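Below is how a single chain appears once it has passed through the pipeline. First comes the sequence as given, then the structure the pipeline wrote out for it. We keep one example in the README because the format questions we get most often are answered faster by looking than by reading.
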Amino acid sequence: MSGTLDEAIVALVPTAPHRIETIGQGHINTTIRVHGDDGTSWCLQRLNPVFADGRIVMANAEMIVAQLRRLGHPTIELAVGGDGRAWHQTTDRSIWRAYRWIPGQVAADHPTPQWSAIAHHLGSFVAALADLDDSQVVTVVDRFHDPADRWRRLEQAIDQDQAGRRKSCTEDLDRLRRLADAIWVRTPAPRWHRLPRQIVHNDTKVANVVVDGAGAPLALIDLDTTMMGSPLNDLGEFTRGCRGIAGPEHAEELADLVRAFVDGLGRPVTAPEWEGLASAGAVLSFENATRAMTDHLDGDRYYELGAGVNLQRCRRHLVRSEVLLAMSPAVAEALDRHAEPDKTPG
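Resulting structure:
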């Protein structure tokens, strides 16, 4: 990769490199930090071919960043090459982009006093994009968050058993089926398609929130899947990662995060959204479990993490979904005590 990396650095990083380090957090894009000889740092990324057209991903990102900057909402600063584009296609046809390194750290997955501030920040991110022309934001991954479709794909993977792994994970599959039955009954999955759709981030895991030394949010990164979806996607992706919230005794804490997110949205939630607030994290954890199991059965084609890693990821997501699902009645009760939903039809 060194040749194309050098090419991308020359095209996008506006300073001579002093030191280069690979950042190993994400499963999708290759991420490299380039320390410039002038003291600046840049995050350089090669987009994964899972995106059919990286140029469309970047067109979306430029539009999103411009909108956020127009409204004064903190966001990334994309590097623009000499050709005026915020991306570069190298000779091997890979798409690269760079943005100024945000000094800080990723949000913690254990309890911090700033979690509510982060939840509010995520809601305000969605609010800042509310008046953007959604017809110009292209869907880069079809049905990215769709629990029913994810389940359909898993059933197909079970039937095909391409990697011959089905027999070795029958207990996990039974557990997934039991959880699927509970999800459909006790969470808004049957109503998922009635949820209002607007432009949302769609991947608000804690690793995509950069915070300062005190844990306060600085910016939301990784805008690649910012496209049409439900705000519950963003709420669920964040709360599923708040590992310190792990039982009914933490119901009030989770309810506080939900209220902070809704406050950041700056609008009343609709009745279908209200029904899904308490269990959004459980649904998104379940969806991630089905994705990991599907990839495990298919032979690790999407996340090339090594044999058995996807299965372990599936099990972790299953545990998290079960915990959050068990909490959801208490969270819903806590929410009901403090607020009433807007009864706008979904």
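The first helix runs from residue 2 to 12.

See the next section for the split statistics.
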